[in-house]
Fold:
Amino acid sequence: MKHYKTSAELKATAREQLLGKYGTTIGAALLMLLISLFLSSFALMEVTPANLASVILYRIILFLLELFMGVLISGNTYMYMNVIYGQPVTVSDLFFGFRQHPDKAILIQLAFSVTDLVCSLPGIIYDQISGSSYRTLFSVLIELAFFFVYLIIALMLSQSFYLLQDFPDRSVPYLLKTSIQLMNGNKWRLFRMLLGFIPLMLLGILTLFIPLLWLHSYIETSLAAFYQDLVAVKSSASVAE
Structure:
């Protein structure tokens, strides 16, 4: 029976497949960052968070913008799957989500955004109701508790955009359900791999943030390698049965 690759093996695969493609992936990352900053600036122009009502309105605007970003995330996923499978990549791959089922990409992002909104609202509402000008221990504990809830759900759904690329004709509920099934017993494995990037993130911050562009490509390709390995092992297990 085929076994899962270690984090070190997945990262080694990512580094190998990224050779000669860093320029393209970094260019796509910069473009996606600029689009995200532009949309965030638009939200701030529309409303400035000051009281509970304005904070909720601001979150709703961000929520709608996040749904749009889901289409770009789909294209970004498509690009990194091409990287890990050794296919040619271009910056225009970032917009692939607009050509293939943008509605499904939005619905998948909806699952993430709703989870994020539900998990963040208790802390926001408590801070506004308490009227405190500084963070209290209780508010921090609330946010931490709901952050872990969001983290677990996000890990469960983490393979949804990859599955959309492989099974574009499948329904969104099927993609979400399959992601949950694939991640059964693998959530800690993915989280542990992500934790391994923290030293490189800190190093990137200490060196004026520029290396983070390379690190972003490295992380995204490692995540695609994780999906590739996950599907390969599951397929091997199904054949063995």
